[in-house]
Amino acid sequence: MQLETYISDLLYRYDCVIIPQFGAFLTHRVSARVHETTHSFYPPKKALSFNEQLQTNDGLLANYIAEVEKVPYLVAVEKIAKHVKSIKSYLVAGETIAFHNIGDLILNTEGNINFEPSHHINYLTDAFGLSQFTSSDISRELHKEQVEAIEDVIPLTITSEKRKNRPYLKYAAIAIIALTLGGFTASKFYVNQIETQNQLAQEAANQQLDIKVQEATFVIDNPLPAVTLSVEKPSGNYHIVAGAFRIEANSDKKVQQLRDQGYTALKIGKNRYGLHEVVYSSHTDRLEALKALRTIKRTHNREAWLLVKALD
């Protein structure tokens, strides 16, 4: 039994997955951050940890295994217990237990389990499509400090008497003021150029992200004219997603196609990328939704997936 596969599936949707009589994998959200030394930008993510004290069976993992493997709940519980017993024996023998895409477990000298999380996967669905990138350092000339230094060396205070006797000082002062203003203007222009360049780079990155998201959805080459559908309000927080469309007419067409095939297809609004989401159905019961998802994957669309989202 690939226990880590089931745990990994659940970590996308839940913040705590308990392995009965062993411990629990926990997640907490970490905001996006910038490394000041390497100038690397990291997207938000779910950070993983392990708590050996949480061992009481809450039914989540066992129910999921029972549904996926089509076995009774008690059989799933027995399978977990047998797997946990095997894991503990390996830990006692000093071996490291590697949970794929989750992390490594090892027993320390005090008899407690140490956990080293894996960084190969981000379980935060809100950060889908976002990856780490590095930006080059931007150096700016400090024109203001240079002007202040010039003013300290060459003061601009000129008396009337000096202007009468030595008029060339007037032109020298005008020249210095012009140079100072020119320095400020050049500095402002330089900073504006940098900000404009950064804005263009950000827009290009956003455009690339939109293209990737659009490529990951259903694409209809010949959209029909917009039609008006009478769609009932979806109920439940578990939605089996059929696709997402940038053009609303395409989403209407997809809803009609699925309804013609016997599905209770609905539109559930726009996602964070502005795409119109279409679902096969919505469910109030998680197990019922998982069962329907497996059927759709097997008979109609292997790319369908389960979205857990409370609708307004």
Task: Spell out the key features of this protein.
single chain, 312 residues, alpha+beta, Alpha-Beta Plaits, 3 domains, 4-stranded antiparallel sheet, 3-stranded antiparallel sheet, 8 helices, 21% strand
Tell me the major beta sheet: 4 strands, antiparallel
Number of domains: 3
Q: What distance lies between the first and last C-alpha atoms, to the nearest angstrom?
A: 39 Å
Q: Helix segment count?
A: 8
Helix content: 40-55%
What topology, given as strand order, has the largest sheet? 11-12-10-13
Content of β-strand: 15-25%
Low-confidence stretches: 156-163, 215-220, 226-231
List SSEs in N-to-C order. Answer: HEEEEEHHEEEEHHHEHEEHE
Rg from alpha-carbon coordinates: 31 Å
* Strand count: 13
Assign the structural class, choosing from mainly alpha, mainly beta, alpha/beta, alpha+beta, or little secondary structure: alpha+beta
Mean pLDDT: 76
What sort of overall outline do the alpha carbons produce when their principal axes are compared? flat
